[in-house]
Amino acid sequence: MRVNKGAKPLGFLLRNPHFGTLLVVNLVSSLVGAGVGIALSVHLYQLTGSPIWTALLAATPTVAGVAFGHLAGTVTDRWGAPLRIMRLALFLRVLVLMALFAVADSPLGLICAVFAQAAVQQLYTPAEQVLVADYVTAEDLAEANGLNSFASNATRLVGPALGGFTMGWVGFRWTVIGVTTLMLLCTLLSLLLRGSGRKTPPAGDTAEQGTEGAGDRYLAIVRRSRRVRGLILLQILDAIREAPLSSMFPVLMLGVIGATSGQMGLVNSLFAVSALIAGPMIGTVVRRLGYRLPVLLGAAISHGAIVVLAIWPSLPLAYIVFVVSGLPFTISWVGGQTWLLLSTPLSLRGRIVGTTGAIYAGVSLVAMLASGVLAQWFGPRWVIGVGAFIALIGLLAIAALLDDRQQQHSTSQPAQVTSAT
Protein backbone atom coordinates (compact mmCIF):
# COMPACT_ATOMS: atom_id res chain seq x y z
CA MET A 1 0.00 0.00 0.00
CA ARG A 2 2.81 2.39 0.83
CA VAL A 3 4.52 1.84 -2.48
CA ASN A 4 1.36 2.44 -4.44
CA LYS A 5 0.80 5.75 -2.72
CA GLY A 6 4.41 6.78 -3.22
CA ALA A 7 4.19 6.02 -6.92
CA LYS A 8 1.68 8.85 -7.47
CA PRO A 9 3.33 12.29 -7.29
CA LEU A 10 0.03 14.13 -6.82
CA GLY A 11 -0.96 11.95 -3.88
CA PHE A 12 2.49 12.35 -2.39
CA LEU A 13 2.24 16.15 -2.58
CA LEU A 14 -1.23 16.10 -1.01
CA ARG A 15 0.12 14.03 1.89
CA ASN A 16 3.08 16.40 2.27
CA PRO A 17 1.69 19.93 1.67
CA HIS A 18 4.71 21.76 3.15
CA PHE A 19 7.03 19.83 0.87
CA GLY A 20 4.76 20.76 -2.06
CA THR A 21 5.16 24.45 -1.24
CA LEU A 22 8.91 24.00 -0.86
CA LEU A 23 8.99 22.27 -4.25
CA VAL A 24 7.37 25.31 -5.89
CA VAL A 25 9.85 27.62 -4.15
CA ASN A 26 12.73 25.51 -5.46
CA LEU A 27 11.24 25.42 -8.94
CA VAL A 28 10.93 29.21 -9.18
CA SER A 29 14.34 29.74 -7.59
CA SER A 30 16.00 27.34 -10.04
CA LEU A 31 14.17 28.94 -12.98
CA VAL A 32 15.51 32.35 -11.97
CA GLY A 33 19.02 30.95 -11.59
CA ALA A 34 18.99 29.30 -15.02
CA GLY A 35 17.49 32.33 -16.74
CA VAL A 36 19.76 34.92 -15.16
CA GLY A 37 22.82 32.75 -15.86
CA ILE A 38 22.17 32.83 -19.61
CA ALA A 39 21.26 36.52 -19.52
CA LEU A 40 24.48 37.43 -17.70
CA SER A 41 26.71 35.40 -20.03
CA VAL A 42 25.11 36.96 -23.11
CA HIS A 43 25.26 40.48 -21.64
CA LEU A 44 28.88 40.15 -20.51
CA TYR A 45 30.01 38.87 -23.89
CA GLN A 46 28.14 41.69 -25.67
CA LEU A 47 29.70 44.19 -23.26
CA THR A 48 33.30 42.98 -23.55
CA GLY A 49 33.52 40.79 -26.65
CA SER A 50 36.05 38.77 -24.66
CA PRO A 51 35.93 34.98 -24.14
CA ILE A 52 38.19 35.45 -21.11
CA TRP A 53 35.53 37.41 -19.22
CA THR A 54 32.95 34.80 -20.26
CA ALA A 55 35.16 32.00 -18.91
CA LEU A 56 35.67 33.89 -15.63
CA LEU A 57 31.91 34.23 -15.30
CA ALA A 58 31.45 30.48 -15.75
CA ALA A 59 34.15 29.64 -13.17
CA THR A 60 32.99 32.10 -10.50
CA PRO A 61 30.20 29.93 -8.97
CA THR A 62 32.69 27.09 -8.53
CA VAL A 63 35.05 29.37 -6.58
CA ALA A 64 32.17 30.40 -4.31
CA GLY A 65 31.36 26.73 -3.71
CA VAL A 66 34.92 26.01 -2.61
CA ALA A 67 35.05 29.08 -0.38
CA PHE A 68 31.70 28.87 1.38
CA GLY A 69 30.29 25.33 1.06
CA HIS A 70 31.59 24.03 4.38
CA LEU A 71 30.81 27.27 6.23
CA ALA A 72 27.23 27.30 4.95
CA GLY A 73 26.65 23.71 6.05
CA THR A 74 28.07 24.46 9.49
CA VAL A 75 25.80 27.49 9.87
CA THR A 76 22.76 25.38 8.97
CA ASP A 77 23.57 22.76 11.60
CA ARG A 78 24.59 25.07 14.42
CA TRP A 79 21.83 27.61 13.95
CA GLY A 80 19.31 24.78 13.79
CA ALA A 81 16.78 26.82 11.80
CA PRO A 82 16.97 25.74 8.13
CA LEU A 83 13.71 27.48 7.22
CA ARG A 84 14.98 30.85 8.46
CA ILE A 85 18.26 30.36 6.65
CA MET A 86 16.46 29.50 3.42
CA ARG A 87 14.25 32.59 3.67
CA LEU A 88 17.29 34.75 4.38
CA ALA A 89 19.07 33.33 1.34
CA LEU A 90 16.07 34.02 -0.91
CA PHE A 91 15.87 37.61 0.33
CA LEU A 92 19.61 38.13 -0.22
CA ARG A 93 19.24 36.84 -3.77
CA VAL A 94 16.60 39.54 -4.38
CA LEU A 95 19.07 42.17 -3.19
CA VAL A 96 21.87 40.81 -5.39
CA LEU A 97 19.59 40.82 -8.44
CA MET A 98 18.63 44.42 -7.72
CA ALA A 99 22.33 45.28 -7.50
CA LEU A 100 22.77 44.20 -11.13
CA PHE A 101 21.30 47.54 -12.19
CA ALA A 102 24.20 49.36 -10.53
CA VAL A 103 26.91 47.19 -12.15
CA ALA A 104 25.27 46.51 -15.51
CA ASP A 105 28.06 48.26 -17.45
CA SER A 106 30.98 46.96 -15.39
CA PRO A 107 32.44 43.53 -16.25
CA LEU A 108 34.17 43.28 -12.87
CA GLY A 109 30.98 44.36 -11.11
CA LEU A 110 29.01 41.65 -12.91
CA ILE A 111 31.58 39.03 -11.86
CA CYS A 112 31.29 40.23 -8.26
CA ALA A 113 27.49 40.03 -8.44
CA VAL A 114 27.69 36.45 -9.75
CA PHE A 115 30.09 35.58 -6.93
CA ALA A 116 27.68 37.05 -4.37
CA GLN A 117 24.76 35.17 -5.92
CA ALA A 118 26.72 31.90 -5.84
CA ALA A 119 27.81 32.51 -2.22
CA VAL A 120 24.18 33.00 -1.18
CA GLN A 121 23.26 29.83 -3.06
CA GLN A 122 25.80 27.94 -0.93
CA LEU A 123 23.81 29.08 2.11
CA TYR A 124 20.53 28.05 0.49
CA THR A 125 21.44 24.53 -0.65
CA PRO A 126 22.20 22.75 2.68
CA ALA A 127 19.27 24.50 4.38
CA GLU A 128 16.92 23.38 1.60
CA GLN A 129 18.22 19.78 1.68
CA VAL A 130 17.82 19.58 5.46
CA LEU A 131 14.33 21.07 5.19
CA VAL A 132 13.26 18.46 2.63
CA ALA A 133 14.38 15.74 5.04
CA ASP A 134 12.43 17.48 7.82
CA TYR A 135 9.18 17.63 5.86
CA VAL A 136 8.97 13.96 4.85
CA THR A 137 9.53 10.61 6.52
CA ALA A 138 12.69 8.57 5.92
CA GLU A 139 10.91 6.15 3.57
CA ASP A 140 9.56 9.08 1.52
CA LEU A 141 12.84 10.98 1.28
CA ALA A 142 13.94 9.31 -1.97
CA GLU A 143 10.64 10.21 -3.63
CA ALA A 144 10.84 13.79 -2.36
CA ASN A 145 14.37 14.20 -3.70
CA GLY A 146 13.23 12.63 -6.97
CA LEU A 147 10.49 15.24 -7.37
CA ASN A 148 13.04 17.95 -6.52
CA SER A 149 15.26 16.55 -9.27
CA PHE A 150 12.31 16.64 -11.66
CA ALA A 151 11.79 20.34 -10.91
CA SER A 152 15.50 21.12 -11.37
CA ASN A 153 15.68 19.37 -14.73
CA ALA A 154 12.49 21.09 -15.86
CA THR A 155 14.17 24.44 -15.23
CA ARG A 156 17.25 23.20 -17.11
CA LEU A 157 15.00 22.73 -20.14
CA VAL A 158 12.96 25.92 -19.82
CA GLY A 159 15.21 28.41 -17.97
CA PRO A 160 18.07 28.91 -20.46
CA ALA A 161 15.71 29.23 -23.41
CA LEU A 162 13.49 31.65 -21.49
CA GLY A 163 16.48 33.75 -20.41
CA GLY A 164 17.93 33.87 -23.91
CA PHE A 165 14.60 34.73 -25.51
CA THR A 166 13.86 37.45 -22.97
CA MET A 167 17.33 38.97 -23.47
CA GLY A 168 16.77 39.16 -27.23
CA TRP A 169 13.27 40.55 -26.83
CA VAL A 170 13.49 43.19 -24.07
CA GLY A 171 17.21 43.50 -23.25
CA PHE A 172 19.25 43.01 -20.10
CA ARG A 173 17.64 45.53 -17.74
CA TRP A 174 14.06 44.37 -18.32
CA THR A 175 15.22 40.77 -17.98
CA VAL A 176 16.70 41.65 -14.59
CA ILE A 177 13.41 43.28 -13.58
CA GLY A 178 11.57 40.09 -14.52
CA VAL A 179 13.83 37.69 -12.63
CA THR A 180 13.97 40.01 -9.59
CA THR A 181 10.17 40.05 -9.48
CA LEU A 182 10.04 36.26 -9.69
CA MET A 183 12.59 35.92 -6.89
CA LEU A 184 10.64 38.34 -4.71
CA LEU A 185 7.47 36.27 -5.25
CA CYS A 186 9.47 33.16 -4.39
CA THR A 187 10.62 34.79 -1.14
CA LEU A 188 7.06 35.72 -0.23
CA LEU A 189 5.88 32.19 -1.00
CA SER A 190 8.44 30.80 1.46
CA LEU A 191 6.60 32.67 4.24
CA LEU A 192 3.81 30.08 3.91
CA LEU A 193 6.17 27.33 5.09
CA ARG A 194 6.22 26.30 8.73
CA GLY A 195 8.55 24.27 10.93
CA SER A 196 8.22 20.52 10.52
CA GLY A 197 9.34 18.87 13.72
CA ARG A 198 11.94 16.73 11.91
CA LYS A 199 10.08 13.71 10.54
CA THR A 200 13.17 11.86 9.29
CA PRO A 201 14.66 9.63 12.02
CA PRO A 202 18.42 9.49 12.52
CA ALA A 203 18.57 5.71 12.22
CA GLY A 204 16.51 2.78 11.04
CA ASP A 205 16.37 0.36 8.15
CA THR A 206 18.00 2.82 5.77
CA ALA A 207 20.35 4.63 8.13
CA GLU A 208 23.41 3.32 9.91
CA GLN A 209 23.26 2.06 13.47
CA GLY A 210 25.07 4.20 16.00
CA THR A 211 25.32 7.20 13.66
CA GLU A 212 24.05 9.64 16.30
CA GLY A 213 27.14 8.96 18.34
CA ALA A 214 29.45 10.24 15.64
CA GLY A 215 29.92 13.65 17.25
CA ASP A 216 29.60 16.99 15.55
CA ARG A 217 32.52 16.81 13.12
CA TYR A 218 32.42 16.10 9.39
CA LEU A 219 35.69 14.14 9.44
CA ALA A 220 34.54 12.01 12.38
CA ILE A 221 31.66 10.46 10.49
CA VAL A 222 33.75 10.15 7.30
CA ARG A 223 36.44 8.19 9.15
CA ARG A 224 33.94 5.98 10.96
CA SER A 225 31.45 5.21 8.20
CA ARG A 226 32.40 3.14 5.15
CA ARG A 227 29.10 4.03 3.53
CA VAL A 228 29.60 7.77 3.89
CA ARG A 229 33.12 7.47 2.49
CA GLY A 230 31.80 5.55 -0.48
CA LEU A 231 29.03 8.04 -1.23
CA ILE A 232 31.39 11.02 -0.95
CA LEU A 233 33.89 9.26 -3.22
CA LEU A 234 31.05 8.72 -5.69
CA GLN A 235 30.55 12.48 -5.89
CA ILE A 236 34.28 13.18 -6.20
CA LEU A 237 34.59 10.74 -9.10
CA ASP A 238 31.56 12.31 -10.75
CA ALA A 239 33.34 15.68 -10.56
CA ILE A 240 36.34 14.11 -12.30
CA ARG A 241 34.02 12.93 -15.08
CA GLU A 242 31.78 15.99 -15.29
CA ALA A 243 34.40 18.77 -15.20
CA PRO A 244 36.22 17.77 -18.43
CA LEU A 245 32.91 17.05 -20.12
CA SER A 246 31.42 20.44 -19.19
CA SER A 247 34.50 22.49 -20.05
CA MET A 248 35.32 20.62 -23.30
CA PHE A 249 31.75 19.94 -24.45
CA PRO A 250 31.59 22.88 -26.92
CA VAL A 251 35.00 21.92 -28.30
CA LEU A 252 33.97 18.28 -28.68
CA MET A 253 30.66 19.10 -30.36
CA LEU A 254 31.73 22.01 -32.55
CA GLY A 255 35.40 21.25 -33.19
CA VAL A 256 35.62 17.44 -33.21
CA ILE A 257 32.15 16.24 -34.23
CA GLY A 258 31.40 19.27 -36.39
CA ALA A 259 27.93 19.93 -34.99
CA THR A 260 26.13 23.27 -35.22
CA SER A 261 25.33 25.33 -32.13
CA GLY A 262 21.69 24.31 -32.47
CA GLN A 263 22.60 20.62 -32.56
CA MET A 264 24.87 21.11 -29.54
CA GLY A 265 21.99 22.68 -27.61
CA LEU A 266 19.68 19.82 -28.59
CA VAL A 267 22.16 17.22 -27.35
CA ASN A 268 22.36 19.02 -24.00
CA SER A 269 18.58 19.23 -23.73
CA LEU A 270 18.15 15.51 -24.45
CA PHE A 271 19.96 14.72 -21.19
CA ALA A 272 17.45 16.84 -19.27
CA VAL A 273 14.52 15.15 -21.03
CA SER A 274 15.49 11.67 -19.83
CA ALA A 275 16.47 13.07 -16.41
CA LEU A 276 12.95 14.48 -16.12
CA ILE A 277 11.55 10.99 -16.57
CA ALA A 278 13.82 9.67 -13.81
CA GLY A 279 12.63 12.09 -11.12
CA PRO A 280 9.22 10.55 -10.31
CA MET A 281 10.67 7.02 -10.63
CA ILE A 282 13.36 7.28 -7.97
CA GLY A 283 11.15 6.56 -4.95
CA THR A 284 9.75 3.39 -6.50
CA VAL A 285 13.17 2.21 -7.71
CA VAL A 286 14.86 2.43 -4.31
CA ARG A 287 11.89 0.82 -2.56
CA ARG A 288 12.13 -2.20 -4.84
CA LEU A 289 15.89 -2.48 -5.34
CA GLY A 290 17.37 -0.66 -2.37
CA TYR A 291 20.00 2.07 -2.80
CA ARG A 292 23.23 0.21 -3.63
CA LEU A 293 22.32 -1.33 -6.99
CA PRO A 294 20.62 1.75 -8.56
CA VAL A 295 23.43 4.04 -7.36
CA LEU A 296 26.24 1.86 -8.74
CA LEU A 297 24.50 0.71 -11.94
CA GLY A 298 23.27 4.19 -12.84
CA ALA A 299 26.74 5.66 -12.41
CA ALA A 300 28.33 2.83 -14.42
CA ILE A 301 25.95 3.36 -17.36
CA SER A 302 26.36 7.14 -17.44
CA HIS A 303 30.16 7.05 -17.07
CA GLY A 304 30.53 4.23 -19.60
CA ALA A 305 28.38 6.05 -22.15
CA ILE A 306 30.74 9.06 -22.09
CA VAL A 307 33.74 6.75 -22.59
CA VAL A 308 32.06 5.29 -25.67
CA LEU A 309 31.32 8.77 -27.07
CA ALA A 310 34.96 9.81 -26.57
CA ILE A 311 36.20 6.75 -28.45
CA TRP A 312 33.72 7.05 -31.35
CA PRO A 313 32.62 10.72 -31.48
CA SER A 314 29.71 11.37 -33.82
CA LEU A 315 26.50 13.38 -33.77
CA PRO A 316 24.10 10.38 -33.83
CA LEU A 317 26.02 8.72 -30.99
CA ALA A 318 25.99 11.99 -29.01
CA TYR A 319 22.19 12.07 -29.28
CA ILE A 320 21.96 8.46 -28.08
CA VAL A 321 24.47 8.87 -25.24
CA PHE A 322 22.86 11.94 -23.73
CA VAL A 323 19.28 10.74 -23.97
CA VAL A 324 20.23 7.33 -22.54
CA SER A 325 22.52 8.51 -19.73
CA GLY A 326 20.22 11.17 -18.26
CA LEU A 327 17.89 8.66 -16.60
CA PRO A 328 20.44 6.31 -14.93
CA PHE A 329 22.67 9.22 -13.89
CA THR A 330 19.77 11.02 -12.18
CA ILE A 331 18.67 7.87 -10.34
CA SER A 332 22.27 7.29 -9.22
CA TRP A 333 22.95 10.90 -8.19
CA VAL A 334 19.68 11.53 -6.34
CA GLY A 335 19.74 8.05 -4.80
CA GLY A 336 23.29 8.62 -3.58
CA GLN A 337 22.43 12.03 -2.13
CA THR A 338 19.40 10.58 -0.35
CA TRP A 339 21.35 7.64 1.02
CA LEU A 340 24.04 10.01 2.27
CA LEU A 341 21.44 12.04 4.20
CA LEU A 342 19.89 8.91 5.67
CA SER A 343 23.33 7.70 6.76
CA THR A 344 24.06 10.95 8.61
CA PRO A 345 22.81 12.21 12.00
CA LEU A 346 20.42 15.14 12.00
CA SER A 347 23.01 17.35 13.66
CA LEU A 348 25.46 16.87 10.75
CA ARG A 349 23.28 16.96 7.65
CA GLY A 350 23.94 20.58 6.79
CA ARG A 351 27.70 20.05 7.01
CA ILE A 352 27.50 16.84 4.98
CA VAL A 353 25.68 18.66 2.16
CA GLY A 354 27.72 21.88 2.35
CA THR A 355 31.19 20.40 2.85
CA THR A 356 30.72 17.64 0.28
CA GLY A 357 29.49 20.30 -2.15
CA ALA A 358 32.61 22.35 -1.46
CA ILE A 359 34.82 19.32 -2.12
CA TYR A 360 32.92 18.63 -5.34
CA ALA A 361 33.38 22.25 -6.44
CA GLY A 362 37.09 22.18 -5.62
CA VAL A 363 37.70 18.97 -7.58
CA SER A 364 35.64 20.37 -10.47
CA LEU A 365 37.64 23.59 -10.55
CA VAL A 366 40.99 21.77 -10.62
CA ALA A 367 39.74 19.27 -13.21
CA MET A 368 38.39 22.04 -15.45
CA LEU A 369 41.70 23.91 -15.41
CA ALA A 370 43.65 20.71 -16.01
CA SER A 371 41.33 19.75 -18.87
CA GLY A 372 42.00 22.99 -20.68
CA VAL A 373 45.77 22.42 -20.48
CA LEU A 374 45.74 18.71 -21.29
CA ALA A 375 43.36 19.17 -24.21
CA GLN A 376 46.04 21.24 -25.93
CA TRP A 377 48.36 18.21 -25.90
CA PHE A 378 46.05 15.20 -26.23
CA GLY A 379 42.83 16.59 -27.71
CA PRO A 380 39.46 17.16 -26.00
CA ARG A 381 37.96 13.74 -26.73
CA TRP A 382 40.73 11.88 -24.89
CA VAL A 383 40.61 14.26 -21.93
CA ILE A 384 36.85 13.67 -21.66
CA GLY A 385 37.26 9.93 -22.14
CA VAL A 386 40.00 9.52 -19.53
CA GLY A 387 38.00 11.49 -16.95
CA ALA A 388 34.95 9.26 -17.51
CA PHE A 389 37.10 6.11 -17.47
CA ILE A 390 38.66 7.06 -14.11
CA ALA A 391 35.16 7.58 -12.70
CA LEU A 392 34.05 4.22 -14.13
CA ILE A 393 36.98 2.26 -12.70
CA GLY A 394 36.59 4.04 -9.36
CA LEU A 395 33.16 2.43 -8.97
CA LEU A 396 34.95 -0.80 -8.00
CA ALA A 397 36.24 0.88 -4.84
CA ILE A 398 32.86 2.45 -4.19
CA ALA A 399 31.12 -0.92 -4.57
CA ALA A 400 33.38 -2.34 -1.86
CA LEU A 401 32.70 0.59 0.48
CA LEU A 402 28.94 0.30 -0.04
CA ASP A 403 28.92 -3.48 0.56
CA ASP A 404 26.07 -4.09 3.00
CA ARG A 405 27.81 -7.06 4.63
CA GLN A 406 30.90 -4.98 5.36
CA GLN A 407 28.68 -2.17 6.65
CA GLN A 408 26.79 -4.46 9.01
CA HIS A 409 30.08 -5.77 10.41
CA SER A 410 31.44 -2.24 10.97
CA THR A 411 28.28 -1.17 12.84
CA SER A 412 27.75 -4.33 14.88
CA GLN A 413 29.23 -2.65 18.02
CA PRO A 414 27.73 0.86 18.27
CA ALA A 415 28.90 1.33 21.87
CA GLN A 416 32.53 1.09 20.81
CA VAL A 417 31.92 3.54 17.97
CA THR A 418 30.52 6.09 20.37
CA SER A 419 33.42 5.81 22.78
CA ALA A 420 35.94 6.12 19.96
CA THR A 421 34.65 9.53 19.02
UniProtKB/TrEMBL annotation:
Keywords of the record, alphabetical order, are: Cell membrane, Membrane, Transmembrane, Transmembrane helix
Query: In what way does this protein cross or attach to the membrane?
Result: Multi-pass membrane protein
Q: Which residues form the Major facilitator superfamily (MFS) profile domain?
A: 227-421
Keyword field contains Cell membrane: yes
Q: Where in the cell is it found?
A: Cell membrane
| Transmembrane annotation, as ranges | 21-46, 52-73, 172-193, 231-259, 265-286, 293-312, 318-340, 352-376, 382-402
* Tree of life domain: Bacteria
Q: Which InterPro entries match?
A: MFS (IPR011701), MFS_dom (IPR020846), MFS_trans_sf (IPR036259)
The protein's name in its UniProt record: MFS transporter
